[in-house]
Amino acid sequence: MNDIRVELAERSYNINFGKTLPVLAPRKTLLVTDSNIYKLYADLLKEMVKPADIFVIPAGEESKNADTFLAICRKAAELHLGRDCRFAAAGGGVTGDLTGFAASCYLRGVPFIQIPTSLLAMVDSSVGGKTGIDIPEGKNLIGAFHQPESVTVNTAFLATLSDRELANGLAEVVKTAAIADEKFFSFLEDNAKHLYDRGKTALFDEIVRRCCEIKAHVVSCDEKESGLRAILNYGHTFAHPVETLSSYRISHGEAVSIGMECAGLLALELGMWSKEQYLRQAALLDALHLPRRLPENTDIDSVIELMKSDKKNRNGKITFVLPVSTGSVKVVSDIPVELIRKVISEN
Ligand code: ADP
Ligand code: ZN
User: Fold this and answer.
1) Helix (H) and strand (E) counts for the chain?
2) Which residue among 36, 209, 233, 254 is the active-site one?
3) What pLDDT does residue 89 have?
4) How confident is the model over 247-263, as pLDDT tens digits?
5) d(CA 78, ligand 2 centre) in Å
6) CB–CB of 14/3 below 8 Å?
7) What is the pLDDT of residue 113?
8) Which of 43, 76, 258, 321 could be cross-linked to 81 through a Cys-Cys bond (beta carbons 3.0 to 4.6 Å apart)?
9) Which is catalytic among the residues 75, 215, 280, 292?
10) pLDDT value at position 297?
């Protein structure tokens, strides 16, 4: 399969699809992976990356912190890795974000490669160069833009991914189709009944490829999110408060799904899109067993407060990405708070 090019001037790189890494300059490589991936794929990864050493982090979002970040950098220092090294991240979004951030800081920046193993990482977090860690005050509050040298996608990894983690990625897949590509959306509708069937590797290859193409295009147009890239936040203005208020018991993908439903309802209220389009999105989310309803007893004031402190707001205005038709969205930031309340209370 052909590579996808992420065009970013001198920071351009390829997303390649396969079981082996592309030919890269020889560098001493520190491989970072999580405990789950290490148990399942240590031999395969050693064969793929031929690392100088492997640093295994405990699986889970709790690892995406300053201590683990420092531990990776110190491991590299202990191995006397110089500027001619690279880091490699093999895992989900946690491993990718954390390792990428360590790579952006170690010796003021060394190259890194991504080997995403979760669907979420394949279709979203491994492409685009956002890296970072969480602090107690919030998720992803510390980070850097640091583009990888390459991303290698092998959908065979999905064989061992749990349904819940698959769903997590599927929500971002629906988001990607909803913001950019009606044909892709209809492809997902046609194949919805197979999307938990890990045996359908060709289907997943096609889906991941289309998501990467769309994301590569968006990121190439706007690397640092000053314009077009904001559309990737469809569903996310509602999702972030929902995740936070649930203390992260609701996963990112589940929250994005609920967030797309809320954005859809808001767009309906504003007369921006039709009931028919709204129902189409709702039906696809339902077919993929993704949630649309806010948890019972969601406190509307807390949701609005958290929306107001979203790091993506400009001039204190809450920004929404709202659908205008299937495959097309618009960024809107002057929505009356009363309307937002209405949508939340009626969801
Ligand atoms: P995400 O990719 O959702 O951003 P994580 O990096 O925490 O978040 O990955 C989610 C969970 O899925 C982690 O427990 C991780 O170990 C696990 N995981 C990732 N890829 C695979 C895989 N291919 N097989 C089994 N488990 C996986
Ligand atoms: Zn997301």
Assistant:
1) 12, 11
2) 233
3) 98
4) 999 999 999 999 999 99
5) 35
6) yes
7) 97
8) 76
9) 215
10) 87
Task: Return the pLDDT at 342.
Answer: 94
Ligand in nearest proximity to the CA of 163: 1
Residue among 35, 63, 118, 170 to mutate when testing ligand 1 (max atoms within 8 A of CB): 118
* pLDDT < 70 regions, the chain: none
The whole-angstrom separation of Cα 329 and Cα 332 is: 10
Neighbours of 56 (CB within 10 A): 17
CA atoms lying within 13 Å on the CB side of residue 345: 8
Ligand 1, pocket-test mutation among 19, 56, 165, 201, most atoms within 8 A of CB: 165
CA 268/CA 251 separation, integer angstroms = 26
Q: Round to the nearest angstrom and report the end-to-end CA distance of the chain.
A: 43
- List, in sequence order, every beta strand (DSSP E) within the chain: 4-6, 13-17, 28-34, 53-57, 85-91, 112-116, 130-135, 138-145, 150-153, 320-325, 328-332
Rounded to the nearest whole angstrom, what is the distance from the C-alpha of residue 286 to the centroid of ligand 1?
23
pTM of the model: 0.96
Task: Determine how many CB atoms are found less than 10 A away from the CB of residue 311.
Answer: 8
Whole-number Cα distances in Å, 241 to 215, 252, 298, 299: 24, 11, 10, 10
Q: Respond yes or no: is residue 64 known to be catalytic.
A: no
Is residue 48 within a helix (H) or strand (E), and if so which, with residue range?
A: helix 35-49
- The mean predicted confidence, pLDDT, of the chain is 95
Nearest CA-CA partner of 85 in 32, 26, 31, 27 = 27
Structure tokens that stand for 258 in this block: 């609920």
Our answer on whether the CB atom of 168 is closer than 6 Å to any ligand 1 atom is yes
Distance CA 156, CA 162 (A): 14
Q: Is 215 a catalytic residue?
A: yes
